[in-house]
Design a protein that fits this description.
Radius of gyration of chain A: 19 Å
Order of helices and strands of chain A: HHHEEHHHEEHEEEHE
Distance between the termini of chain A: 39 Å
Shape of chain A: globular
Helix content of chain A: 40-55%
Strand content of chain A: 15-25%
Oligomer: homodimer
Largest sheet of chain A: 6 strands, antiparallel
Low-confidence stretches of chain A: none
Strand order of the largest sheet of chain A: 3-8-4-5-6-7
Number of helices of chain A: 8
DNA sequence: ATAATAGATTAGATTAATCTAACAATAGAA
DNA sequence: TTCTATTGTTAGATTAATCTAATCTATTAT
């Protein structure tokens, strides 16, 4: 049996290790708002349960079993966020903290029904992939806008930052998911991009281009 | 701060004390599937927090504060049950255990939205009253069918037992909420009733008539 | 190369929620 | 009224999840 708290650790490790494949203890503890010894002793527990690999003074890695468990929690989280947003009309700014709680509900039926009502979505409204029922996270084949070259045309499909401010910024520029964006030029000094879309031209800072995911 | 477990105790005390106004420790512990000493020490905690009145060897009573808190938990429970049933199409047999978990979600917004989507219902689909946002339980003015006399005509508005078997039984007899029932006669020996409704006549045992609430 | 700093671990304490075993009180029956 | 069975309480232990204080390891800068 995995406790609610253990679930939170697993999900956080998964999200934090998406890039590098592992997480140092202090990063995990910071993210979860607990002190390092707390995270440390929890890692021993999760290692006993064969959910993580953990050796003294080395960073944390999920085992296959741990990865699957974590993906299923992430699935419930994103499914719930999508449901709260699309079927209950709650604002994005509220959706996350409620989903953090609902993701721990023990009921396959409940989440299956959500899935059904949402027509088995593959991504959440932010474009983040929803892991499958088997606990597999399909690679979203998305890259950062800032990773592309001059002359390329890409499709804006997701964001990296769900803060209200950022979403408002995108709204102001009329940058919607699905918009085709052409990179006209890149400023070598600060990495800012001149882009065109919908018959308009804008300059986006590197900070912004880092947060925009495209295909 | 009231913990999740404390919430479960409060809600259970409220439900169990609906009739008599108080609950003995052993009844509470049985209902919650914990041993008596566990319930006992929890009562000390709740008494410290001024949520219950509790003196050694005397039964438990809720304080006003405790009653309000408990009613708000019951509100969330019944609102959730109604939502799962009416808006998500889940069966009654599944709805209770999921609502037991969701009732503890910390988010006024979430429950307000449910309330709104359900058009501010006053009772759940079983006819049980949903306490108000202020934590007031409006008396439902319902009585047991078995408390009525020969010749009376009453409206069947709620049940006392949500078991699948009982609901199936009612279904078989075509006894739906809202049905007008006339009591033709009462058998003095075993208390069974001869009733008529929808142009048919049936005999209901006392056991059944105890579980049917009417106005 | 060594000292300073950042990061990780150990030891020991705390609180919530539970248990078992042993003891105490109350109420109903003889 | 006294005994016995039911109900309630105390004491002490356990597990999960957290903390602080002290210590250890590793990396980085001089």
């Amino acid at each position: 049996m995995i406790t609610l708290t253990e679930e939170n650790y697993l999900k956080t490790i998964l999200v934090l290790s998406m890039e590098k494949g592992y997480v140092p203890v202090h990063v995990l503890s910071q993210e979860l708002n607990v002190k390092m010894p707390t995270a440390n002793s929890m890692m021993k527990r999760l290692a006993d349960k064969e959910l993580v690999y953990f050796e003294p003074y080395k960073p944390i890695r999920l085992t296959e079993k741990g990865k699957t468990e974590a993906a299923l929690i992430l699935r419930r989280h994103r499914l719930t966020e999508t449901f709260l947003f699309e079927r209950m009309g709650l604002g994005w700014e509220h959706v996350h903290s409620i989903a953090e709680q609902i993701e721990h509900i023990q009921s396959g039926l409940f989440f299956d029904r959500m899935d059904e009502m949402l027509n088995f979505p593959e991504t959440d409204p932010h474009g983040e992939p929803i892991p499958t029922k088997e606990g597999v996270i399909l690679p979203s084949s998305r890259t950062r806008l800032s990773n592309h070259k001059e002359g390329e045309t890409v499709c804006f499909t997701a964001v990296n930052d769900s803060s209200e401010e950022f979403l408002r910024f995108l709204n102001n520029k009329n940058l919607k998911l699905g918009t085709a964006i052409k990179i006209e030029s890149i400023e070598p000094y600060d990495g800012s991009l001149t882009v065109s879309y919908d018959d308009r031209q804008e300059i986006l800072s590197k900070m912004v281009a880092d947060k925009m995911l495209v295909t």
